[in-house]
Amino acid sequence: MTVTVREAGPADAETLSEIGGVTYRASFADGMTEAQVADVLARKFSPEAYRAALAGNVLLLVEVDGVPAGLCQIGPVRIAVKGPQPGPRDRSVDTLYVLPDFQRRGLGRHLMTAALAHPSLQDAPALWLDVWEENDRAVALYESLGFERVGTTEFIADGVVVGEDLVMRRERQLSLP
Ligand SMILES: CC(C)(COP(=O)(O)OP(=O)(O)OC[C@H]1O[C@@H](n2cnc3c(N)ncnc32)[C@H](O)[C@@H]1OP(=O)(O)O)[C@@H](O)C(=O)NCCC(=O)NCCS
């Protein structure tokens, strides 16, 4: 099995949408209404949303033997944090998604490690992300890579506050494990 990580471009918008949509639905749709799921998929995971995101963010794709299996987004911090506030040069490493069929093979850790080493993050004083607080496996992965719980943020879908996410931060001076 050959695992590679590459930067996605506009030609990958449909692939990113497929990975984002399938993984989101499989992981988080339980307990949400179809309207809420549809709103999140349209705003964050449609091909149009990814084409727009590619203008100001880096999208990394992990591939297994050439088959796209996961994605991760790097860019400015857009989290409305309840807690300490991100600085202007801080960045976020967000939406680490591995397709269900490819999970538990080390791809999530591999992709996150590649993201943390990306040149666009090397001058950022701190890295931020948000994650559903009950997502134990993701929180454990982020903690093992040096992220700490520093606050919360509202999770809004279809105009309704659906729940609260955990906000985690990683200081730059940490070296990779
Ligand atoms: C979270 C996610 C990215 C992890 O990716 P993955 O490829 O399955 O994870 P890996 O195989 O690289 O494992 C990384 C770590 O995750 C944890 N983990 C993964 N699957 C787990 C499971 N089923 N149970 C418990 N821990 C698990 C382990 O701590 C593991 O640590 P290790 O490397 O020391 O063994 C993936 O499960 C996913 O996409 N989930 C749905 C979307 C999501 O929750 N994204 C993150 C929040 S935005």
Task: Name its key features.
177 residues, alpha+beta, Aminopeptidase, 5 helices, 7 strands, globular, binds coenzyme A
- Based on the coordinates given, report the CATH architecture: 3-Layer(aba) Sandwich
CATH class: Alpha Beta
Low-pLDDT runs of 5+ residues are: none
CATH topology: Aminopeptidase
H/E topology pattern: EHHHEEEHEHEE
Number of strands: 7
Largest sheet: 7 strands, mixed
Mean of residue pLDDT values: 95
Strand content: 25-35%
The set of bound ligands, ions and cofactors reads:
coenzyme A
Strand ordering within the main sheet: 1-2-3-4-5-7-6
* Helix vs. strand class: alpha+beta
Report the radius of gyration as a whole number of Å. 15 Å
* H/I helix tally: 5
C-alpha geometry: globular
C-alpha end-to-end distance: 24 Å
CATH superfamily: Gcn5-related N-acetyltransferase (GNAT)
Helix content: 25-40%
Indicate how many domains the architecture comprises. Answer: 1
